[in-house]
């Protein structure tokens, strides 16, 4: 069985466990295939925690959930040097960030030092404790969640850290029909005494994920589409060159990481659609998630109630498609 078939089996498995969140599931798989991290924003109870647990159960790797709180310390993530009285030496005890799949639950509830420790892990794939640097595993994915409702006692994520997330996904409530199915599914699982992530063996091996990533990188993308991605990101920095009505709405545009993220996400999206080429539709499908957290609106735009997604829609409508 090919790695594509394995990943599609995994996608089907997750969709059977998590109902009404197909968009989140697709973007989580995109992040896995593009070797990136995911920032998910949504109200409580929308299966954000469950979806990463089900994904981790279906992939050959280990999972750990970290609840971010104001009293969390960097060592609670990275680990620390532990003294051994038997021989009078210190040895390093790894923290939870050394797992393959990390759920950073309510990431904006921890202060700057903790954010800095996670930033190194996400950006450099390593952890530094004292004078020693420890590499992380090649399969490493952080899914961080934010609660948009309650802002008391939270810390705004630094722009540098938000830029390290491949995608910023906004999760909405399921439809009434999907919610009814969720109620029935949870009841049936309780009757049978099993949980969402119950699975006999992983559906995708580590080798399968790494092979899929190579195929994603090998997908054909026309030079015109590469230029189109760069023009979209450039338009967020110099909107006056593309649309005069956007000039007063954007304070800062996306960084070059925005171009890299959109290109990789579009490739992964096309691969999941079983195509060996990237189309403009793939770019449009991933544009909002790749740029939402990288474009900073002006004070005037926020005062007028303009949201980033609206600006991205206008950029897509303004920059000509090749």
CATH topology of the largest domain: Rossmann fold
CATH architecture of the largest domain: 3-Layer(aba) Sandwich
Treating each run of at least 4 consecutive H or I residues as one helix, how many helices?
A: 13
Q: What's the N-to-C terminus distance?
A: 36 Å
The SS-based structural class is alpha/beta
Runs with pLDDT <50, length 5+? Answer: none
Strand order of the largest sheet: 2-5-8-1-9
The level of helicity is 40-55%
Radius of gyration: 21 Å
Q: Proportion of β residues? A: 15-25%
Shape: globular
CATH 4th-level superfamily of the largest domain: P-loop containing nucleotide triphosphate hydrolases
SSE order, one letter for each helix or strand: HHEHEHEEEHEEEHEHHHEHHEHH
Biggest beta sheet attributes:
5 strands, parallel
Number of DSSP E strands: 11
User: What is the CATH C-level name of the largest domain?
Assistant: Alpha Beta
Mean pLDDT: 89
Total domain count: 2
Structure description:
This protein has helices spanning 3-17, 22-33, 48-58, 74-78, 112-124, 159-162, 176-192, 206-218, 223-237, 256-272, 280-291, 299-303, 308-318; strands spanning 38-41, 63-67, 79-84, 89-94, 101-105, 126-129, 132-135, 141-146, 167-170, 250-252, 296-297. The protein is an alpha/beta fold. The chain has two domains: 3-192, 3-Layer(aba) Sandwich (Rossmann fold); 219-318, Magnesium chelatase subunit I, C-Terminal domain (Helicase, Ruva Protein, domain 3, Orthogonal Bundle). The strands form four sheets. Strands 2-5-8-1-9 form a five-stranded parallel β-sheet. Strands 3-4 form a two-stranded antiparallel sheet. α1 (3-17) packs antiparallel against α3, α1 packs across α8 and α9 (223-237) crosses α10 (256-272). 38% of the residues are buried. The mean pLDDT is 89.
